């Protein structure tokens, strides 16, 4: 279980939860569960991180929301099952189903969701597969997976080369990364418009190293990306062909120094797959916005998630 200092998440209860055949680690805290005026908010981390990335944001949101901070399947202290033939056990559909079941176990059948990076891709699929559960959705520094793959060019492939490296058949990327996993992890955390590791607090960095720099952690991350380049695209195309769009209000945040800002149009790209209102803004950051700008992130979330529909 996470070795993060307890003061980081004072008032949060850490626990393993059995959902859909796996164990998910999550911290739960903020406003009391019995407070009917405290809206439940699910915060989802990205690659190559854990729930620890939300530390500073969660401190500011705790007085206003009932917070649930899980480690995604394959990350942190959650289970990291071996990938299957079609990578379906790392599909965003499977990950979304995990989290919906987790929230139901915690007594939340309808809730707010914010995801960064891979967590935002899980949140997108959740809003499509479980529209009855997602009240509002905030997505940080991504555009839809299908959009990004369909627009791949030299600039994108160069900036996000890991999208194409991690999807190679096992065990090639696993062994390459495993040769110096800590160096690889640090390179990712300091990239994509983020200059160095100053934005990562030492306890969080130790948590990322502990959880990612193992054979199981590296394999799980590769499977996450293999799923995105295969079964996730199938699911996305099926949703598109059926005319399914995100129905709830959506707010998008992206970094002015990041790849998304440089190569995509987040508001237009999300507007194309949402039937409800899409709002958003760029922030003076790279990719890791919640850690680079925790105050601005928390403020944006409070404004959007607490707004009247």
The low-pLDDT segments are none
Mean pLDDT: 95
How many angstroms separate the termini?
A: 39 Å
Q: Structural class, judged by helices and strands?
A: alpha/beta
Number of strand segments: 8
Order of SSEs: EEEHEHEHEHHHHHHHHEHHEHH
Quote the CATH topology: Rossmann fold
Described by strand count, sense and barrel closure, the largest sheet is: 8 strands, mixed
Which strand-content bin applies to the residues? 15-25%
- The CATH class designation is Alpha Beta
Helical proportion, percent range: 40-55%
- Major sheet: order of its strands? 1-2-4-3-5-6-7-8
Number of domains: 1
Please, what is the CATH homologous superfamily?
Alpha/Beta hydrolase fold, catalytic domain
CATH architecture: 3-Layer(aba) Sandwich
Domain AB hydrolase-1: 39-164
Pfam families: Abhydrolase_1
GO molecular function: hydrolase activity
Protein name: Alpha/beta hydrolase fold
Question: Can you walk me through this structure?
Answer:
With 309 residues, this protein is an alpha/beta fold. The protein has a single domain (6-305), classed as Alpha/Beta hydrolase fold, catalytic domain (Rossmann fold), CATH 3.40.50.1820. It has 15 helices and eight strands. The chain has helices spanning 55-61, 92-105, 118-129, 145-150, 154-159, 162-165, 172-178, 181-189, 202-212, 215-228, 231-241, 259-263, 266-271, 289-292, 294-305, and strands spanning 13-19, 22-30, 40-44, 66-70, 111-116, 134-140, 250-255, 278-283. It is globular. The mean pLDDT is 95. InterPro entries: AB_hydrolase_1, AB_hydrolase_fold. It comes from Leptothrix cholodnii (strain ATCC 51168 / LMG 8142 / SP-6). This is Alpha/beta hydrolase fold. Residues 39-164 form the AB hydrolase-1 domain.
